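[step 3/7] fold_predict: job queued, chain A
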Amino acid sequence: MKRRQILKTLALGGVAAVLSGAMRLPATDETSAAEASNTRKPATRFAHMTDVHVHPGRSSAQGLAQAIRHVHALENPPEFILNGGDAINDALAVDRAAVEVQWGLWKSAWKENGSLPLRHCVGNHDVWGWDKAKSKTTGDEAGWGKQLALDQLELKKSHHAFDQGGWRFIVLDSMTYDEETAYRAEIDAAQFEWLRTQLQKTPVETPIVLVSHIPILTVGTLGFVPRLRKYPPGHKMLSHQDAYELVALLRMHPNVKLCLSGHTHQTETIQFGELAFVNSGAVSGYWWKGDFLHTDEGYNVVDLFDDGTYEVEYVSYGWAPA
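[step 4/7] structure written:
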């Protein structure tokens, strides 16, 4: 399937499958924004593949392999792939042996089907044992919490930054331990200060992509799914509880151009002033049961340009439940 054979997805507001940041370009008497966009040059292209949830059942390993091959076969392939989190189906509520089986499937799929460089964001389901009752853990086990995922993904820290194509990527860790719900969407004070420092030391002429597994802003979970209404504490798990503080900080830095997330398995875009929040659906769709809320299994292809603009396109890779 060619990249232009794209999927029309539900976006809670009629957002088309191709989203563009070109509207950020200032129009003048001499040059319109559209004309100015013709002078921009590609900076980098990447695929944002999030919420894979690979596990031994439902042919998910085969689905992941198909998705990886699909990305590599794009007519204009990306320079790298960004794993948006929830690589494995669940580590929160199972024992270590079950977690290691899932990570084994993840690593085998990439080794056998992929060659593009991988970057990573940790998701809530990648964290081992935070549901102590179901995982039968105490918290004292080696690798408990995020460490096992960091080891598997070869990350030193769960929040980090890197540069690509003249853009700065800032990757957040969205999860804080919560005894009631296992996790809540929030960064701690130390990570907030780290983010503030990263934003301050990034030159103003360097555009920024902010990556979080859990969306900072979303409308897709506000009473939209009936089962979520039956679990009031669930709001802590679905979107960042510190969104007000994060948005206030981000708005101080106009070179933050795009905020990418996953978690909700829905495609969505929110333009909030000069900030754009884009959610990338899910490779697993409805956890490998089919499409989720009219969004097929897929991923976003993101084109970044040298003038700080971007384009985002949601691509279905044609997987069907076995």
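[step 5/7] annotate
Residues 1-18, 22-32 have pLDDT under 50 and may be disordered.
Residues 27 and 35 are 9 Å apart (CA to CA).
exit 0
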